[in-house]
Amino acid sequence: MTGTNRPPIRMVHLGLGAFHRAHQAWYTHQANELSGSRPWGIAAFTGRSPRAAESLTEQDGLYTLLIRDRNEDRAQVISSIVEAVDGNNGARWRELLATPDTAVLTVTVTEAGYHHHGTKGLDYGNAEVDGDIRLLRSSKPATRAARSAPGRIVDGLRARRDAGAGPLALVSCDNLNHNGDVTRTVVLQMATSVDENLAHWIDANVSFVSTMVDRITPATTAADCETASRLTGFPDRAPVVTEPFAEWILAGEFPAGRPAWELAGARFVDDIRPFEERKLWLLNAGHSLLAYTGMIRGYQTIADTMKDPECVELLEELWSDARPVLPFSAAEIDAGLQDLRTRFQNPRIEHQLTQIAADGSIKLRMRSIPVIRRRLAQGLDPGRGQAALIAAWLRCLRSPHIDFHDRGADSLVGRRDDGPAHSSVDERSALALLDSELAKSPELVAAVVLAAERLGAATASTSF
Ligand SMILES: NC(=O)c1ccc[n+]([C@@H]2O[C@H](COP(=O)([O-])OP(=O)(O)OC[C@H]3O[C@@H](n4cnc5c(N)ncnc54)[C@H](O)[C@@H]3O)[C@@H](O)[C@H]2O)c1
Ligand SMILES: O=P(O)(O)OC[C@@H](O)[C@@H](O)[C@H](O)[C@H](O)CO
Q1: What is the residue with the minimal CA distance to atom 36 of ligand 1?
Q2: How many domains would you assign to the chain?
């Protein structure tokens, strides 16, 4: 493959992981192929390690997307990423954001990457956030490389303001409630801490677009590299595997233009809320429940856990809990759930439970707590499936034998690799980490205690 006739850079991305390449880069590639107008190229920056940038650069940014259904793989070479850059390259980051041609900045930095703490907004007191504020206040641009996502965004937007490059759209593509609003909050708070005038400029010139993004994309394995190379005939070190299903719903303005993503199936709506609630409360909450119950049972992947009738029973309860509080008709919910059962059962998508389980203390605040809150407000019980999800998360946190990362829970259980001291954490304290108000509800605490008993001493061979 060669990189001739590549589209000009008009989009910048932060967080060059698997999902960006399966989703936004694929939508942009499709839009380029289908629209007759000037194509859009992406400069994608890594979030942490430079590895993805190095392997993509060796291939001129080209990579294979393996679209995997339960029977076979279809290989598509994606050409929308024209530059892959190490995230530590602050100079190139500022240069591209200061270019008027750059019209859209997309972001996938995981839930934790926003450093957003509920109503408090930006997580001041966090070493990375505080370090970035000091850095952005003091140092000369040439030597600067902010580390947190809000810090990098503010750094880039300051360069854009200084260059007079005009407005742009900032599009969060992470699984967060109101992801556009959260991004706006943390970026404006960081900017205010650095330079109030900059915060005013951002407020007036940056459109924070909210999105619901959906496409199950597991981490790439060595076997996937071999499959991609076999199907395309070139040695691909950076392929991505994904499912056939893809959905992208967006709400917000694009003041400097955007790719014709609608040609690839994206939808533009006024109110994102129902769509993000449906996605987070059915798909993502379901994933989390399968991750924790599956890890308790010793499974590795979602598809394996879907073969366990008792895990599936809890999943169905979780979905039933969400039904009365979702703003969709019964028929719409039924159709969505039928799709989800099929998607979760795809035996050839090896989505690792430990990846999904990571940072549950942040994810459950969005995937479960709002459902419980809405159920209680409607005079319903908290929901057996919701209680099971929280109890299973807590069970995994308590177990020294189940290995996954949840940095937000360190304060509760201590560092998990320090030994089994955390095994005594009680349900109320765990709930307080998710929602300090709800932790005072005797009904919810009792439901989680009951669910924990139901999970009991379950192992791979005993029932919940
Ligand atoms: N994989 C999926 O199925 C999927 C689907 C929908 C949405 N998403 C969203 O995309 C995110 C990334 O998923 P992925 O599959 O690409 O994961 P990944 O591990 O392949 O990539 C994650 C990317 O985020 C960067 N990152 C991580 N923490 C960061 C931080 N604190 N600050 C800045 N950058 C950081 C990493 O360096 C990497 O570039 C998810 O957390 C989720 O919010 C993923
Ligand atoms: O990517 P995370 O860590 O937010 O969540 C794990 C999965 O639930 C998630 O990636 C889903 O696969 C995805 O949201 C499907 O669109």
Answers
A1: 47
A2: 2
Could you tell me where the DSSP H helices lie in 206-284? 222-232, 273-278
The mean pLDDT value of the chain amounts to: 93
> pLDDT grade, residue 95 (50/70/90)?
very high
Are 21 and 63 spatial neighbours (Cβ–Cβ below 8 Å)? yes
Q: Judging by DSSP bridges, how do beta strands 9-14 and 73-78 pair with one another?
A: unpaired
Rounded to an integer, what distance in angstroms lies between the CA atom of residue 48 and that of residue 81? 18
| 141 is a domain residue | yes
Does the pTM surpass 0.90? The reply is yes
Beta carbon of 346 within 6 Å of any ligand 2 atom: no
Same domain, 238 and 363: no
The reply to whether 160 falls in a domain is yes
Check whether residue 216 and residue 303 sit in a common domain: no
pLDDT in tens, 251-309: 999 999 999 999 999 999 999 999 999 999 999 999 999 999 999 999 999 999 999 99
The Cα–Cα gap between 338 and 343 comes to 9
Q: Are residues 76 and 55 in the same domain?
A: yes
Q: Closest-lying ligand to the alpha carbon of 112?
A: 1
Residue 267 in tokens: 């939808």
Q: Structural domain of residue 255, as residue ranges?
A: 9-271
Answer whether 175 contacts ligand 2 (Cβ < 6 A).
yes
Helix axes 149-163, 90-97, angle to 10 degrees: 50
Query: Could you tell me the distance, in angstroms and rounded to a whole number, from the CA of residue 174 to the centre of ligand 2?
Result: 9
Q: Give the residue from 227, 243, 271 where a domain finishes.
A: 271
Q: 296 and 200, same structural domain?
A: no
Alpha-carbon gap, residue 402 to 418, rounded angstroms? 13
Q: Place 460 in a pLDDT band, splitting at 50, 70 and 90.
A: very low
b/e map 115-129, b = 16+ CB within 10 Å: bbbeeebbbeeeeeb
ipTM of model over 0.90: yes
DSSP, collapsed to helix, strand or coil, labels residue 374 as helix
pLDDT attached to residue 4: 61
From 14, 19, 21, 179, the mutation candidate for ligand 1 (largest count of ligand atoms within 8 A of CB) is 19
Which residue of 12, 51, 88, 109 sits with most ligand 1 atoms within 8 Å of its CB, as the best mutation to test the pocket?
Answer: 109
356 CA distance to ligand 2 centroid (A)? 6
Please say whether the beta carbons of 206 and 167 come within 8 A. yes
Pocket of ligand 2 contains residue 108 by CB under 6 Å: no
Would you state the structure tokens that stand for residue 289, as one six-digit string?
């429940």
CATH number at residue 172: 3.40.50.720
Does 194 lie in the same domain as 342?
Answer: no
* 360 close to 383: Cβ distance less than 8 angstroms: no
